[in-house]
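Final report, results section. Input specification for complex C-07:
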Amino acid sequence: MNSARLANLALAGLTQGSIYAIVACGFNVSYATTGVLNFAHGEFLMLGTMLGVFFYGSLGWPLLVPMVLTVAICALIGALVEIGAVRPALRLGHGASGWILSTLGVAIVLRSIVSLRMGQDLRAFPDILSRTPHVIGGVRIVPQQLLVIALAIAVAVGLHLLYERTLLGRALEAVSQDREAAAFRGLPIGKLSSTAFGVAAAVAALAGFMAAPLTGASPRVGFPFVLKAFVAAIIGGIPRIEGAFAGGLFLGLVEVYGAEYIGPSCRNVVVFASLLIFLFARPQGIFGRVSARTV
Amino acid sequence: MSVSVSSLEPSTTTDVLLRVEGVSAGYGHVSVVHEVSFAIAPKQLVTIVGANGAGKSTLLRTISGINRATTGRIRLEDVEIQRLSSARIATLGIAQVPENRRVFPKHSVLDNLRLGGYVGRKDKDGSAARLEDVVERFPVLRERTKQSAGTLSGGEQQMLAIGMALMADPKVLLLDEPSLGLAPLIVDQVFEHIRALSEQGRAILLVEQLAQKALALADVGYVLQLGRFVAQGPGAELAKDRALLRAYLG
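Structure output:
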């Protein structure tokens, strides 16, 4: 096994991991503010690929227009999911868990609508950047892969700045620290929650759109990614953005190296085995803090 | 012993800032506050004292829209607020310093203050002026703007909580047991700040278990027992009525 081979695998792993990282970041954004794990989150990645294939592929508009439009539509749907499916479920009181079924229901509805309108087939997505590799010193560097990795870095840095530097971000974080204390200060909890869901959906849709030349577009593309993104979020430490980022990249590398050295059929085995190892050894995740929880 | 209400309450609606009329509230089917009525005039400091479980916090939470009134009306100036969201009520001019302070422990002192001023965030100049006023009032906060709020002492957190409420520049300031868990010396400092705020013309509704000190500050005082007012009068008079306070507060 030579070093060029290792580097190629690393690039593939980081690309795969970048998608997990972006989806996991979105997971954490909605979870932090509402305490809800949005089971429909992966469908925004799916919508990113499918709306993208429609606006960019079929209609052939110049890249920026379909991208902005796709992300904006998904942000809006995300906010509506919070208003329509999450908020009523939480209204039943502290510890209400109706959101498990309601977000799962939203996932099924979104997937079904897209399947009915556009069919179930996996569609090719037109190139955003070239998929032809440049071979440098035996390492195959694919511009499209670099784009996905760069996007993951941009999303993580962008969300970090949102949380640390803006009053909106501080407010979103405050709601996650103490929802009632935030209400006492007149923070608009409902608006902040739907904003968080909108941001999360936008980020997932952006990931779907930008990675679609690699993943393809299909109504079923969301679930496998969201499952692994969830694992990545746990490994990184929910709800930390840097955790989601690190966890995503880690998981992508584990998956690709595992498939190479243990066997392609073990792809998912190594992913979930690493989750188990973390749950035993460091249940709070890489960046997580141990905290008391009132039930 | 207790003075009649009518002589204390402002007679016309024009000089009433906040009016609570026949408000009941509670949790689920359990009513904790029963048809309570009172009013606060501009610049007035009203104190409500009562034992643990008398319904003081519930009453404040109902005014600020965290809890819902099951009966009655609450008016801030000429707006009925009992059905509005807590965020809307805050925008209209009521800020609450919650029981146990409830600052955001992981946020810096400065971020806590900025969030306290969230309702007035669009007024950039006003926000800056209010921040300056708060750190002038509580110099200890100025020294610690970058420190996370969770590392402050109880007294400092109480100052921060009051500072957060002032950042919203409220028409009425609600204070829920600001003495809770503080050393007597610190309690005196906190009460001194409350007195200063009142003297500067801020309308204040103070709820306390520490009856004597809290009533001594007040223009008007009320004693709450099991969700009903059982005595009311000028604060200074109630504060001196030891028999009364012993009877209701133990």
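Chain A touches chain B at residues 167, 170-171, 173-174, 177-178, 180-191 (CB under 8 Å). Chain A has a mean pLDDT of 91. This concludes the modelling results for the funded period.
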